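Q: Predict the assembly, please.
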Amino acid sequence: MTESPHGLSAQLTWRRGALAFDIDLRLPAQGVTALFGPSGAGKSSCLRAIAGLDREATGRVSFGEMVWQDSAQRIFVPTHQRRIGYVFQEASLFAHRDVAGNLDFGYRRAGRPAHLDCDGLIDRFGLRPLLQRRVSGLSGGERQRVAMVRALLSDPALLLFDEPLSALDGAARAELLACLESLHGMLRVPMIYVSHNVDEVARLADHLLLMEAGRVIAQGRLHDTLTRLDLPPALGEALGAVIEGRVVGYDAQDQLIELEFPGGRLWLPHRHESVGQPLRCRIGARDVVLTRAPQSGTSALNQLACRIVDVAAADHPSQLLVQLDAGGCVLLARITRRSWHALGLAPGSEAWAQVKAVALGF
Amino acid sequence: MLTPADLEALGLTLRLAATVTLLLLLLGLPLAWWLAHTRSRWRRPIAAVVALPLVLPPTVLGFYLLMLLGPDGAVGRAFAALGLAALPFTFKGLVVASMLYSLPFVVQPLHNAFEAVGSRPLDVAATLRAGPLDRFFNVALPLAWPGVITAAVLGFAHTVGEFGVVLMIGGNIPGQTRVLSMRIYDHVQAGEYHQANVLSLCLLVVSFAALLAMSLLRSREPARD
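A: Predicted assembly structure:
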């Protein structure tokens, strides 16, 4: 997977039924960009248009120095020449080939390049025992793992993942999400990851594209976008901070780990993390309680000293969204107007953010 | 049991059916592919024309073909102008007529098979760097394989059994156009019921074997390459 100096840029318009699409997006050349939004916002259609699978869209798409589509100049590079790796929402394996035959389909057409670690990918996704199996006998999670490795082996310059976990049940989903998380670090090509699940997005994405009714309504770094105060209706429950830190402690008896980040330390439930590893954690705006002073006699394990930066009306008239600064990290709290007034809070005032450890488990 | 004339008719019938099936697959695959994927407004009219021989009496089809291909027909005159031999009452003429007659029996199973495959596997293949021909031969065709078998068997069996069209455009020329069904008719006309019975049994066996082969081939394990 070679690096490209520039990322994806797309300006496209088209209609599908009652929905008028007007997409303008720019992607960094690195990292995972989540295409996030409610069901029916047109996320999958957007991905198909970028891949060149739907020809209705007119406009311009470029990737790096390559122009993939320029309707004004009648340029349209067909999908098979775009070097994309696409993973579809539901099973999309070739029924006439076994697992090995599926994996080899794109790999062979890419010329089986030496820089792709085929065996490593097969092992990382646990496909070794499945290689000779028929596709019809695979579970949903196994199918998606095959589809992902198949896409990665086609030597893509851009990865497009369309809600690859949405059809899976809890256990298979968690397993595959962990797989994708581990892939994140070694990925040298950009990825667009379509999802309407904020936990997936918080764990995988570096950037966020927010879509609503056929339009990109916000784009930026994941953390910045999820803590913006001007987008509450679109983001809804997804609002909150995503912090990045390092695991510094493990309490084996209570099964908790301690996460250190610039804003302080947090206890959260232990899953399979080990001390020393970097870790992301989402603190939903709804899960933060504000107090004027540190509390004793509370069940909340975490209390962070912060300063109130800004406040805005939330999507319900009873509520406010409060932006907080904890050691340079932005946190978000959703509280009632009544509490805001009762505590006498104002921008600039000091406060403590209480976070239940229970709320921090994915 | 079988007279040399009967054997000749049997051989001719199998040769005709094999030729027609092969040519119809070559013609039917792209036609069915087009019908399954086009958004052209000509899709429905052309599908109706392809299906026409299903409902048209074979004698009507044969009659119009005779008119068209005969010395006074448009195609017949064009052939004469090019210095080519006229088609009616020849093996070639029989091939052309049989192709028209059996066309829907080949195109419809292929069309259904391609529609059942759908666009998803083809989209997937495109994202895995497969170009249009690559997608057709390595994805669509293997996935539509049962439909191809059905099309071949139906086309073959239907051509073996035709009578009306042959009567109109082929006639009854030994070694040229005298196929099995004509021969059976001759035997019955001449009161040779035993001979008619033997030949009819031949057709029955061929038809049964074709259906058995279809069922066996359709259940073939998916290919690996």
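Chain A touches chain B through 28 residues (CB under 8 Å). Residues 219 and 283 of chain A are 20 Å apart (CA to CA).
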